Amino acid sequence: LAYRSPGGILPVLLFGAALGSVSIATLACLPVNIIRSYIPGGVIMPILGISMAHGIVIPIFMGIIPQTCSPDQTGMAFAIVEVIGSIFNFTNILFGWLKDTTG
Fold it and tell me: Would you call 56 exposed, middle or buried from its count of C-beta atoms within 10 A (0-12, 13-18, 19+)?
């Protein structure tokens, strides 16, 4: 989809970044009662926006890696991406545990 869109990949990437930023800002800056009152779907819509942004931005970044690295360092670039992704998954587990223990 991104490769065949008019204007190329950059507008799709910027749309994904804007969607994720607005969704995170909505959850972080607005009180829950305002989100439930004025946004259709309530709190689910910003979470859906974050998920959509993740589905847009991450595959584009993964597709860009071979075009930006030399061929003999492409494997190391993918390894770094996987390690960083694993660290972020660990922080998700840690925040889930923290939420469960504190209520």
Answer: buried
